[in-house]
Design goal:
single chain, binds 6-O-phosphono-beta-D-glucopyranose, 3 helices, EC 5.1.3.15, 8-stranded antiparallel β-sheet, glucose-6-phosphate 1-epimerase activity, globular, mainly beta, about 5% helix, 9-stranded antiparallel β-sheet
């Protein structure tokens, strides 16, 4: 569908479709509760701000690259049908192909509370089929308002069991990574990717003074990002997800990447974000018998620090 057809079929008072950066099509949402943009490539949410916040809650790099087949630095990349490197094929893209594949819009709705809901379905093609030869449907439902809810629904339409890894690789806007703390993971086991994949246990809050790349397993806990600089707390509540990934590249790694940018304060965009990703990875990958369906749901919200 082109932009005109999308607007005719799915336009809502708070939702319109438009062509934007990289000549890609975006769902642009602006309602009483909040605003967001969602790129049809990847069903990738590229920013969300509740109306009561002056700063966005979902962060996007000012140097993000937009274009066919490019993954966008920031927002809510969808990792599916695997998380991290592919188990056996190193040539396959890290975090799967969902974030660089076109999705189609399947529906839209304005809810009674004024929130806007948009549904998307991943469109399989020869490339995705070659990398994942399974009849599996992947849908994303975004509900945008004063909070942001994302449901990632996998349906196994195959005749055999299918195993998937997945994550909503969300970049959250914070004042300064050196002052932020992530709580909710105390006592959880994690795989430390910056220490040779060693298994460790979290003690207290996650604090940052260097690169952090950790996959916490077997945890369904809500996580909070405490941000004294912006004076707010970001709440990340999930269901259907047993893994939480916490990632900051820190300075050296970020500077090797072309798409982090200088950030608002000019001290590096990497200082102004942290990824707290909700999903099912490593020990927690999901096996779906023929005909089964699985939903990962995450709700993001922000509140003032007391
Ligand atoms: C995290 C991984 O989820 O994503 C990191 O744990 C990775 O290892 C990071 O570096 C970013 O990945 P990408 O492919 O978006 O650059």
């Amino acid at each position: 569908m082109n932009v005109t057809e999308l607007n005719e079929h799915y336009g809502q008072p708070g939702l319109r479709f438009a062509e934007g950066a990289g000549e890609l099509i975006y769902a642009e949402i602006d309602n009483a509760g909040g605003s967001a943009r969602i790129c049809l490539q990847g069903a990738h949410i590229v920013g969300w701000r509740p109306k009561d916040q002056t700063e966005p809650v979902v962060w996007v790099s000012d140097q993000a690259k937009y274009g066919p087949g490019k993954s966008i630095r920031g927002g809510v990349p969808v990792c599916w049908p695997w998380f991290g490197p592919h188990a056996s094929e190193s040539a396959f893209p890290g975090h799967g192909f969902a974030r660089t594949t076109m999705w189609q819009v399947t529906g839209s709705e304005t809810l009674a509370d004024g929130a806007t809901r948009v549904g998307f379905m991943l469109m399989p093609n020869d490339r995705t089929h070659a990398q994942f030869p399974k009849a599996c449907r992947c849908e994303l439902i975004a509900t945008v308002g004063a909070s942001l809810r994302v449901d990632l629904v996998t349906s196994n339409l195959d005749t055999e069991t299918v195993t998937i890894g997945e994550a909503l690789h969300t970049y959250l806007r914070i004042g300064d990574i050196a002052d932020a703390a992530v709580t909710g993971l105390d006592g959880s086991e994690y795989v430390d990717k910056v220490d040779g994949g060693r298994r460790k246990h979290q003690a207290g809050a996650v604090m940052f003074s260097g690169e952090v790349d950790r996959v916490y397993v077997n945890t369904e806990s809500e996580c909070l990002i405490e941000d004294p600089v912006l004076g707010r707390r970001i709440r990340i509540a999930k269901s259907g997800g047993r893994s939480t990934v916490v990632w900051t590249p820190w300075q050296e790694k970020a500077e090797k990447m072309a798409d982090f940018g200088p950030g608002r304060a000019g001290q590096g965009g990497w200082r102004e974000m942290v990824c707290v990703e909700s999903g099912n990875a490593l020990d927690d990958v999901v096996s779906l018998a023929a005909g089964e369906r699985h939903t990962l749901s995450v709700i993001y919200s922000a509140e003032a620090l007391a």
